[in-house]
Specification:
With 355 residues, this protein is α/β, with parallel strands linked by helices. The protein is built from 15 helices and eleven strands. The strands form three sheets. Strands 7-2-1-9-10-11 form a six-stranded parallel sheet, with helices on both faces.
Length: 355
Amino acid sequence: MGKSGVRGDRDSRDAFFRERVEPYTPDSSSLHEVLEKLYRTGYQGRMLGKVFRIIRSMILDRDVLIYMGLAGSMGPAGMWKVVSWMIDRGYIDVLVSTGANVSEDIYSGMGFPYGQGSPCVDDSMLLKLGIDRFYDIYADEYRYREMERVIVEFIRDLPKDHIYSSSEFMYLFGYRLNSLGIDSIASTAYRYSTPIFVPAIVDSGYGIASYIAVKEGHDRIIIDQFKDFEQMVEISSGYRATAAIYIGGGVPKDLVQLITVARTLAGDSPIGSNAHKYAVQITTDLPQWGGLSGATLEEAVSWGKVREDNIATVNVDATIALPLIASALRELNIDRSRKDLSWLFSEVSRYIERL
């Protein structure tokens, strides 16, 4: 009787095997083909393949506005040019970043090297030598201050008769960096009028530079973070659907998530009606601690922030996943129409000639 019961459930049991693991065999496949094949395996290899497939889908979807939430410390690790490349290709429409990620790339863009080091080092010795450590990466403290001096001088020259959003501030700073020939995320974004929002801008070299500028007798600039959010929501309202790529979590992730909630509340719409159509997350954080950076995208479904399909999280270091995904996208060479968001800077574009 037990055996017949098992046979009677044959169809139900077979359903678990309709999608099957395909053992990975090394061959001459291109990188995007490797990621496709990983999608047929298991664990985080499968999720990396799924994240790649969803990013490809959002890029191919012409009606979607793509946000990237960028956290962590990607500049010193050598990842900032990947982000610049994605902006250059039109694969990111709006960047929401920590202050560190759009300042520590400037250090590199000025020609200052980050050194490869070790986490097992005498940090008291590094302090005496004026060397700062990012896990296994070294920065020259005195050259770091030169980078911050570039920001101080920009703040000194920035007109003070305007209350800026961080995207307006970064647009004008991108112009300054571009005119100085300093390669960076901000200078790339300036050339394409791609907005960069920095919701915790004071928590970085920008906060230090602003403080120094005021102490040197220059007028204080005002950056309105509420204006930031208003602009972020306004941008999204012009498009049928939105998508999100999260590198890490933190404030950038939360703010991009909250855009969907704000649109729903402002329009008195049903919960979830403005959820991101696509969303992927590359993170090393875990969900069981209750923090946002490790929170699953499935959890975000309950808030109406993302749709339950076309979402994926891969728990892997972004310095591994991001270059692989970007290189695979480069192989595919997808031509995507760039979203024209230059209107966002209409109020501050007149200041360019004064910088």
